[in-house]
Amino acid sequence: MPKNFCGLDFGTSNSTLGIAAGNGVALCPLEAESVTLPSAIFFDYEEHKVRFGREGIGAYIEGTEGRLMRALKSVLGSSLIDETTLVQRKRVAMRDVIGMFMRHLKARAEQHVGHTIEHVVLGRPVRFVDEDDAADAQAEAELIGIAKAQGFHHVEMQFEPVAAALAYEQSLAREELALIVDLGGGTSDFAVARLSPERARAHDRAADILGRSGVHIGGTDFDRRLSIRHVMPHLGYDALIGPKKLPMPSHLYHDLATWHRIPTLYTPQNINYLRSILFQVSAPEMIEQLIEVLVDRKGHRIAAAVEAAKIALSDEAEVTLPIPLDPVVETVLHQGDLDHAVYEDGLRIVQAIDACLRAAGVAPGAIQSVFLTGGSTAVPEIRRQVLGHLPNAKPVTGDLFGSVGLGLAIDAARKFA
């Protein structure tokens, strides 16, 4: 009989899906040959169709008229999940938008394996919402409900760092006390685990997961901080209004720098307000550029340019960030700018690691290996702070985008095969 289970890592920035393959598991191609799919959905107004991932982002950047939405996972656990968004004069519920994306992932996997998939282990961060257990439980319930509405009749959950631990364990020749560090687009998650080839054969691994923790910090936060410091000043962030020299409303800029908040800015009220203050603001030319961004809906283009600069600065000492205005404004960023932007977030990540170690009853010096997964582990300052806190740990870099999906599929095989 066909194995109709999968492990689904619905990520803030990228998603993966693991399936049965031979005697093991593998990641399923989700877009051409790529096993990752950017968690983006584009409502194409010209061809009246929905596009996903790179195809949708590409159509948006090329100027196709439509509506792009990214970082969909970020609305889980927030009031935004109950809101609707306007798509060509039709109100669409945010949970239905997430459902469309999940249904697309499921259809791609079923096309690849040639049969229906009804069983899934979904990944979840250790915390959807920091310090709010009710909201955190509601976020998990929403995700399960969305999955079942797409035809996943049997849904189990697994913590994302635990899934990454199961994937890392496949490479081990002997037992290790490991810290799993999963730094994604929206959350940072950690687990202390005893891993070995022998332990990998056990069905129940609860006793081997000694501690876990999480904090709502991720790559999209790094993007936002970099954008606020180096892009938003070009759009009037520091401008003053009227004789009393009142500051510009900061929420406009913070929302413009936050992936999942960008679509909420494109309202006549915001545009009319900005036009009304043009003749009393200290930098009218910059406010005119901000108006241009909102009218032409360039928010995601700006966010994509900032994200690309962040990624480039992980390897290069200096990059030029082109801000897509008319004309294009170029600003030079140095690796030190990224270090400075993420420094405080790095401290909070280390604090969350300490909480994980305390939960496990383990000192930092006792950790033998630290398994790094998730795209945000490539940010140099974050990596320095994490590794500097674990003096005896061997750093191991896993598949930055695929480890969790593979681990979820391993877990699914145990639960459903």
Automatic annotation (TrEMBL):
Superkingdom as given in the UniProt entry: Bacteria
Pfam families reported in the protein's UniProt record: HSP70 (PF00012)
Record's keyword terms, sorted: ATP-binding, Nucleotide-binding
Keyword Transmembrane helix appears in the UniProt entry: no
Positions in coiled-coil regions: none
Family per similarity comment: Belongs to the heat shock protein 70 family.
Protein name: Hsp70 family protein
Organism, scientific name: Dongia rigui
Origin organism lineage: Bacteria, Pseudomonadati, Pseudomonadota, Alphaproteobacteria, Rhodospirillales
